[in-house]
Queue: 2 jobs
Job 1
Amino acid sequence: MNYVRNAWYVAAWSHEIEQGRPFAITILDEPLVIYRGESGRLAALEDRCVHRMAPLSLGRCEGDRLRCMYHGLLFSPEGRVVEIPGQDQVPPNARVRAYRVAERHSWVWIWMGEAERADEALIPPAVGLDDPDYILGHGHLDYEAEARLINDNLLDFSHLSFVHANSFGAGPEFAETQARMTPLERGMRYERWIENTLGSSSRKSDEPMDNYMTYDFLIPGVLLMTGGIYPPGTAKGCDYGVPDGKPLGGVTFTSQAVTPLTAKTARYFFSWGPHRDHGDEAMRDALMQLAGVAFAEDKVMIEAQQKVIDRTPDPRVMPTAHDKGVTMFNRLVERLARAEAEGNRDAA
Ligand code: FES
Ligand SMILES: [Fe+2]
C-alpha cells in the first residue's frame, strides 16, 4: 500500500477505548491492540502474542499491562514479556512491537512509522468534541474501498454538485468554477467563495450573502474545514482570499479522518457542528443528519467505483481541471513514501 507511515493515523474516538477493555483494529494491514491501563495510560501493541500468535486483543488488562488469555504471557505497555507462567526466565527478545500512541482532539492517534521519528507536533490540529467554541456531533463509517479513493473524494469538491445536489443542496458552482488550492508542507489548502448566495442546506441565509469555505487536507488523510457567511462584496473586497472581518453567521467546523485498515478497506471518522455563537444543539443534530445522508451518498459512489477499478485489468485515470488538489496531495504522498523507503534502504 502506498501510504506514508511516518504519520499519525486516527485509530479510534477516545471514548471507544475504555479502561480495561482491549480494542482491536487493523491499520495499514497491521493488526493492533489498543488498551487503556489502570493509570489511564494508553498503549498500542502488535495484536499477536509471541508465544503462539493468539490475538492479544482477547487478553485481559492487569494494571497497565496486558495478559494474553491463551497461556497467560504478560506484556508491558512497551511490548516486553514480563512474565511467563511456570517459567522463571523470560527470554530478553520476548517482545511484540509497540506503537507510539497519543490522545488529542478526542481522537486516539497512532504513529505507524519508526517510533524514534514520532513527533507529536505533526498531529493535525483537529477540533475535539470538548472544544468550548463548537457544539459537535460525531460518528464513523466503514468503507469497502481503499482509503486513497476517499481521500481523492475529499480533495475534489466538484462532486458536491452531483453526488450531493439533494442532500447538501450544493449548486453547480462547485463543478463550474475552480476553488483556490495552495500547497502546504504536509498537505494542501482549499478556499472557495460563493458570492450572492442564499446558501445551501447547511448554511442558509434570507438575503444573498457571500459564503466562504476553506479546508486543509493533511497527511495522512485528515480534513479540517470551516467557513461562514459574510456581507455581499466581501469576497471581491479580499480578492477571494481570507476575509478579515468577522462572519455574520453560519460558522461550523468539521474534522474528518480517513484511516486505511487494509488494502481495500478504510474507516472514516467525522465530527461536525456549529460555532457556539452561530448555532445550538438542534442545529448540530440537523447537521449530523445531513452528514449521515451525504456521507452515505459518497460511500455508495466510492464503493461502486472500487468494484469497477477491481475488475479493470490496467486501471488508468484521466484527470480533469478539478483534480489539481488530488494530484497535489497524491504527489506529496508519493514523495514522502519514497523518502521513507529510501531512508529504510539506507539504514538497512
Ligand atoms: S499464545 Fe499467548 S500465551 Fe500462548
Ligand atoms: Fe462527498
Job 2
Amino acid sequence: MSKDTAIVDLRSFLRDIETKAPEEMVKIERLVNPLDYEVNTFLEIFRRMGKYPLVKFDRVSTFNGGVFSGSMVTSADPGSYRRAAIAFGLPLDKAHTQDVIEELSHRASHPLEPTVISRAEAPVKATVFRGEEADLGNLPLLMHFEEDAKPGWLTPVVALKHPDTGRYNLAYHRTMYHGPRKVTMKISPDHHTHAADYYNRARELGKTLPFACILGHHPGFYQGAAIRTPYAIDEYWQAAGMMGGLRLVASETWGDAFLVPADSEIVIEGEIIPGEFENEGPFGEWPAYYGAQLRQPVGYIKAITMRKEPIFQAIWTSYHMLEDIAHSIGLQAWIKAKFPRLKAACSLYHTWAIISIDKKAEGEPIRVAALALAYGEHVKHCIIVDKDVNPYDLQEVFWAIAMRVQPDERVQVLRNIKLGRNDPSLVHQMAGSAMIIDATEPVDRPFQKRVAVPARTLERLSRDLHQYVNAKTLAAVPVRDRWTY
Ligand SMILES: [Mn+2]
C-alpha cells in the first residue's frame, strides 16, 4: 500500500454509503437490546417488507446489562450487490451484479502484502483491556433466533496462525459465550477446512492455538475472509488484495508473533486449548435452519482492544449474502480455470450454482456442472444457461428453464453424492443427491430464434434516450428484484 492510498475500513465504507446511497442505510437511535433478539427482529421486519438495508444501531445494550460505549452495524459485509458496488468503487449508475463480480474476481486474484504499523499509530489500540479487565460481557453480544443456545453469541472473522508455516487463516466461526473470558468456537476439527487443519496440528504439537476475533472492518476484509483461498496464500494478503491494502499491528498478547488488523473496530485476543471441548449450539445458521448442538473447542480471552467509539459488526446469520458474493467469485475462478468459455457464475444459498457459458458443443453443460459440483460440497443444484442469459437475473434464468428445457432429457439427478452437513433435507448423515438442469439451446439441431429489436435501433435510442425520457422519471421507476437491482 503506497502512502497516498486511502485507508479503507468500516468507517470509510459507512461514509461512502451516507454520501453516495443514503437510502441503503437505516439508523436506529433508540436503545436496542441485541440479547433479546431485537437486532434480528428488525432485520426480519424489513425482510417482510422486501427491504435489505444496512442497519446502524446507535445505542445497544451489553451482555452485562450496561449501555455499549459504541454502536452496532449489521448487513455491512456488504449485504447487497449494490452496496458492494459502493464498497469497491464502481460507478453506481453503471454497475450491475456482473460488474461487481468481475471487480471482486480481479481483486481476489491479486493478493497484496499487508503493511505493519506501530501500536501508537493503530486506531484499534485506542482502548486496551488485558487480563481480568477483558470482559466479553461489556460487548453487545447477540441472540439471533429463538432456539439459539443461551446465553449469547458473536459472529467474528477469526484469524488463526498455522503453528508450522505461520500462514494466517481468516474464517467465520460462530462463537458462544461461556464466561467473561471463556468461549467455544465452532472449528469442527473433523471437517476438511483450513481452521480444522490448524487446530489438529496445534493439538499434535501439544501447543495452544492463538486466535484473534475481528469485529468491524471494510467489506473487502469480510469478503476476503469468506473466499476459499488457496492454501499457499496467506489470508491477510488475500484480504489486503480485496481492500487495496491492509494495515496490521502487533497483538497485545503475542506481540509481533501474531498480528491483528490495525483499522478494525474491535479485536478479541485469546488462546484455544486443543483437546478441551464444551457443548455449543444450536445456532440459527446460513441455511435459515438451526445448526445442531456440537462439542467444540474452548478458547480463553487474554485481551480486548478497540477503537474510540467502536462499531460492533454483527452478521445476519441466516439470510445474509456474504457468502453468495464470495462463492460467486470462487465458482467463477474455479470453473474458468478449466472451461475458459464461462461467462459468469452465480452462487445462491450456497446450494445453487447458476452458470452461463458460450456453448459450442452438446455435452459441455454437463462437464461444466461436474466442475461446479466439485467446487464445494454445498453445491447441490446446477443450472447451466447460454451466454445470452444473465445468471444473476433469476427471471431470465427461469425463462431459460421454461423455454429451453424438456425435463426428461435436460434434467439429471446424481445419487449418493457427499453434501454439506448443514443441509436440512439430507436423509442420511452426509450423502444425498444433486440435480443438473441443462437450460441451454441445443446446437445439434435447429432451434427457434429468440426475439430481438434491431441492433441499430437499440444503439440509436440508447444513445439518445434522454431526449425521449426524463432521467429522473426513469431513475424513480423501482427495481424490485434484490438480486439484480
Ligand atoms: Mn481459509
